[in-house]
Amino acid sequence: MSSCPMCDRPTDTKFRPFCSKRCADLDLGKWLTGGYVLPGQAVEEEDELPDEAPYDPKPIN
After folding, report:
1. Which of 3, 23, 34, 42 could, after both became Cys, cross-link 18 (CB 3.0–4.6 A)?
2. Predicted confidence band at 16 (pLDDT cuts at 50, 70, 90)?
3. What is the pTM of this model?
């Protein structure tokens, strides 16, 4: 039997891979607040759109 990644208790099949709803919610909270980070270089966001022709939808006949 595997253990909960948050508290090391045995997992519950209802909340797999966690032992309880509390541990599942704690894990979700870490994802939502940026608690988990993938290693790598930071990517700078561009303020402007790339130089492309503007979107010009064609009418449907």
Report:
1. 23
2. very high
3. 0.59
